[in-house]
Structures are given as structure tokens and as C-alpha cells.
């Protein structure tokens, strides 16, 4: 190549490249798209920060209120069901304990009756032995026979009376303790039933007050609780 041709080639390489029509259109489209995207992002950001976005319409507030009322109703029904189940369990346990006490009382009475029968049989046996011995001695002296029989009868009667008195005292004391235990169990069951009912009434009352606060002022259930707490302090 000649020196003139080399100079021309170098000049073409050094000269800036002129943009084509497609480059211009592409650059303008990119600029417009960026502007639209920025405007859309700014509009969405403003909508998210707008206080109107957090404001609920009356129908939505009513739906929220009805939903909360339904949830509160279900909760109250569940609590009432649990309370009734606890009362039934307590009553069943009380009846079971009462039946056990009655069965034990019958068993103890049978045991005492059996002891009395054995004591009576032993008394009759010993009395017969003493009478036989007294009869042998009485064959010698009639006066001694009568005295021995009289003393033996008095002794046996005294022992029998003392035994019966002790058994009756023990039975009376045992029955008294069983009665105290049964009354204590019934009292505990009644107190538990009263406490459960009082808790259910308090929770139902608070639920109604919170529902009224939500219906009156709107907002969530937590906001209703805050308003109710503020009103109670004032």
C-alpha cells in the first residue's frame, strides 16, 4: 500500500462513528421506558404511603366485626362445653367416691356384725364352760354353786357390754369421719363450679365490651382492647 492509502485508513479509524437511525430509536425507547418505570415506582410508593390505603370501608369493618363476633361465640361455646365436661367429671367422681364410701360402710358394718356374732358365740361357750365347772363344784355345796354361777354371769355380761360399747363407739367415729369426707368433697365440687362460672361470665363480659368498642370506633380487636383499657382507667 502507498503512504497515501495508509493515511486515509488511519483517519477513518480515528474519526468518531456516526450513530445510525436504529441506534437513535433504541436509545429513545430505553429513555422512555426508564421514565415510565420511574413514574410507576413513584406512584406505587405514594399509594403505599397514603393514609387512605389503611382506611377500611364500612362493609369491611362490618365483616371484620361479624367475623370476630363469630370467633368469640365459638370460643364461649368451647369454654362452656369444657366447663360442663369438668362439672360432669366432678359429679361422676363425687358419685364414685360416694359409692365407694357406701360400699366400705356396708363392708365395715358386715365386719362389725360378724365380730359381734363371734363375740356372742365365744361368750356362750365360756359361759357354758363356767356353768359346767360350777356344776361340778355345786355338787358339793349348793351355796357355792349359786355364788359361782352368779359371779360368772355378771362377769360375762360386763365383758359383753364393754365390748359392744367399744364397737359402737368405733363405728360412730368411723361414720362421722366418712360423713365429713363426703361433705368436704361436695363443697370442693361446688366451689369449683362457682369459680368456673364466674370466669366464664367475666370472659363473656370482656368479649362484649371489646366487641362494642370495635363496633363503635372500628379498627382491630387489639385496638378495641386498648380503647377499653383507656376508658376503664379514665
Automatic annotation (TrEMBL):
Name of this chain's protein: Uncharacterized protein
Biased composition regions of type Low complexity, renumbered to the chain: 27-42
Keywords: Coiled coil
Keyword Mitochondrion carried by entry: no
Renumbered residue ranges of the record's region Disordered: 1-113, 215-234
Superkingdom of origin: Eukaryota
Recorded coiled-coil stretches: 153-180
UniProt feature, compositional bias: Polar residues: 1-11
Bias (Basic and acidic residues) ranges: 43-97, 222-234
